[in-house]
Write a structure and sequence with these properties.
The protein is of the alpha+beta class. It has helices spanning 6-15, 31-37, 84-95, 119-126, 136-144, 148-177, 184-197, 265-290, 297-310, and strands at residues 20-25, 49-54, 60-64, 77-81, 100-103, 131-134, 182-183, 200-201, 207-210, 228-229, 234-243, 251-258, 324-325, 351-355, 358-360, 365-367, 370-374, 379-381, 390-391. It folds into two domains: 6-143, Creatine Amidinohydrolase, Chain A, domain 1; 145-391, Creatine Amidinohydrolase (Alpha-Beta Complex), CATH 3.90.230.10. α8 (265-290) runs antiparallel to α9.
């Protein structure tokens, strides 16, 4: 468990013209709070705790008398309360003299990854006379930015995952070229076994979908639900994993292939459109970062989606262009999204995200996914890029 960087937190609070950042938890609703504050998570609180970091001065918290050790690992006075009136009075003490405070809240739930504080608690804090604003930008800084060591784990995971992906395609090639079929779930099990041998772990997946199943973005075969992959079939393989070590971050890719030598003209056309959309997003990111301009998540989605819209396939691109990547495969930084939400968060240095446009037709689907890392003054794709259709 890392320790809280109080000086840096207060510096960022001041940069955003806030009076403080108020943390709250009850029954482990907000894992972000524990990570930012560096509090070890043991038994979850059965009573509410609050912790205010002001823009200037000493932090202050409040805990229930029967759980007074909940904030033992962070500095500052801890106000004890038991009754409802005591809690309300202590909360007024935490917000005294303040006008604007950040909490893990998102207006209209536009960014659900940070919307961890319940509506009633937001109303309670507002009743003290303060304006509550979203901590989304602060969370990016203290939760989503990688260290050099984490970048190294990502790059190594990428090398290992790319090898497993190539091996999985080779299994499909060998089986289908010999006139046999291979079940989707067999390839899924092969990938998971190869991950284990390579020192990789994952929370789920991979997605292995052929033909119509490739049009279901979150399809995952199982022993009960699986289809045979045969010569003449279209195959999509989406896989994500990280090194099996503390603090490691994910690598997440999607490639597609055709089992044979002669894919249809429609397959070729759709693959090229998806590839062009992906590349337009890459160009947008790299040119904006190189020009030292702020880049917002929605802008990347716009650059990618416009290519697919203009091709006439916009209705078949049914999800955002990309998501933040971190110690969880879906991280807490800016998403490349102006579709499911309007993500106005800045794409910050030392963060990583996917670019993964897709076109999902009734009989087959194409998605091409890469990862992009933004450094201090440049952005790059961190692994292999599928430039052409794979023929198995």
């Amino acid at each position: 468990m890392s320790t809280m960087n109080l000086e840096k937190i207060q510096e960022e609070i001041r940069k955003q013209s806030l009076d403080g950042w108020l943390f709250f938890d009850h029954h482990l609703r907000d894992p972000l709070a524990y990570r930012v504050l560096g509090i070890a998570v043991s038994k979850g609180p059965t009573r509410r705790w609050y912790y205010m970091i002001p823009a200037q001065g000493e932090p202050k918290g409040m805990v229930h008398r029967i759980e007074r050790d909940q904030l033992a690992g962070v500095p500052g006075e801890k106000i004890l309360y038991s009754s409802w009136p005591e809690q309300a009075a202590a909360l007024r003490s935490l917000t005294a003299g303040m006008k604007r405070v950040a909490m893990q809240y998102s207006p209209l739930c536009a960014i659900p990854y940070v919307a961890n504080v319940d509506a009633g608690t937001i109303e309670l804090v507002r009743s003290t006379g303060v304006e509550v604003v979203s901590s989304a930008e602060l969370i990016q800084i203290f939760e989503a930015r990688w260290t050099a060591e984490q970048l190294a784990t990502h790059l190594e995971a990428g090398r290992r995952v790319d090898k497993v992906r190539a091996a999985a395609f080779e299994v499909i090639r060998e089986r289908t070229r010999n006139g046999l079929a291979v079940q989707e779930v067999e390839i899924k099990d092969f990938v998971r076994s190869e991950f284990a041998h390579a020192g990789l772990i994952t929370d789920s997946g991979p997605i292995v979908g052929c033909n119509a199943n490739a049009s279901n973005p979150h399809y995952e075969p199982s022993a009960e639900v699986t289809s045979p992959i045969q010569s003449g079939d279209w195959v999509l393989l989406d896989m994500w994993a990280k090194l099996e070590q503390p603090g490691a971050v994910y690598y997440d890719i999607t490639w597609t292939a055709f089992c044979g030598d002669n894919p249809t003209d429609e397959m070729r056309k759709v693959f090229e459109i998806v590839k062009c959309g992906r590349d337009a997003a890459i160009t947008k990111v790299q040119s904006t970062i190189a020009a030292k301009r702020d880049l917002r998540g929605f802008e990347v989605d716009d650059a990618c989606r416009s290519v697919i819209d203009e091709s006439g396939y916009g209705e078949y691109f049914t999800h955002r262009t990309g998501h933040s990547i971190g110690v969880e495969v879906h991280g807490n930084s800016a998403n490349m999204d102006n579709f499911e939400t309007h993500d106005e968060r800045r794409v910050m240095p030392w963060t990583c995200f996917s670019v993964e446009p897709g076109i999902y037709l009734p009989h087959f689907g194409v998605r091409s996914e890469i990862n992009m890392f933004v450094g201090d003054d440049e952005a790059r794709v961190t692994g292999q890029i599928q430039r052409g259709m794979v023929l198995l």
